Amino acid sequence: MSDAAPEPHWLTEDEMRAWCAWRRIFPLVNAEIARDLGKDSGLSEADYDVLSMLSQCPGRRRRISGLAEHLLWSRSRLSHQLTRMEQRGLVRREEVVADGRGAEVVLTEAGLGTIGAAAPAHLESVRRHLFDLLTPAQLEALIQLGDTITARRADAPPCG
Predict the structure, then answer these.
(1) Which of 43, 89, 145, 159 could bond to 110 as cystine, CB 3.0-4.6 Å?
(2) Cα 56 from chain centroid?
(3) Beta pairing class for 61-63 and 103-107
(4) Are the beta carbons of 90 and 111 closer than 8 angstroms?
(5) Separation of alpha carbons 57 and 27, rounded Å
(6) DSSP 8-state code for residue 139
(7) Rounded distance between C-alpha atoms, residue 51 and residue 85, angstroms
(8) How many angstroms separate the Cα of 75 from the Cα of each of 30, 82, 97, 108, 148?
(9) Mean pLDDT, each 10-residue run in order, the chain (160 residues)
């Protein structure tokens, strides 16, 4: 009986190239878009994520637990983020009157105005740093890649 570990299933040359590309693409594109967002609107990525999500919810509100789950954040991280945003008047927390057990985060009018003002420049940045660089076939491949990977994750929230 051998104590030797089984040989790793090494990546092929193409798999290694793809893995390295993935590892470069995400932080590069994310950093460029985040830099533009801060410069153009003064918002962080976290601010934008929360404001954008709430602006799409019915009544511009969502249970805090559901928002944390959707963003794939811990409740603690979201709580700290919401505190900073509340101090700026962008959101407020309210108890859920119907059951008295949970809390919701509500987008304020100031928050709605902030996301409305930030969105056009942010979307231009997303276009400039990502979509304008892709062919239609590459865009379709990116969509399929996202669908394939997220479909395997039962806890992956839908986009939006």
Answers:
(1) 89
(2) 14
(3) antiparallel
(4) yes
(5) 28
(6) H
(7) 9
(8) 23, 10, 20, 21, 27
(9) 80 96 95 98 97 96 93 94 98 86 93 98 97 97 92 62
Structure tokens at 5: 């570990």
Taking the C-alpha atoms of residue 99 and residue 8, their distance in angstroms, rounded to an integer, is 52
Domains of the chain, CATH where assigned? 21-150 (1.10.10.10)
Cα(70)–Cα(159) distance, integer angstroms: 9
Which amino acid appears at position 91 of this protein?
A: V
What's residue 154's pLDDT?
Answer: 60
The CB density around residue 7, as the number of other CB atoms within 10 Å, is: 6
CA distance 112 to 116: 6
CA distances for 110 relative to 10, 89, 153, angstroms:
52, 6, 35
CA angle (102 as vertex; 97, 107 as ends), nearest 5: 80
> For residue 102, what are its two tokens?
């949970």
Q: Which residue has the tokens 């809390």?
A: 103
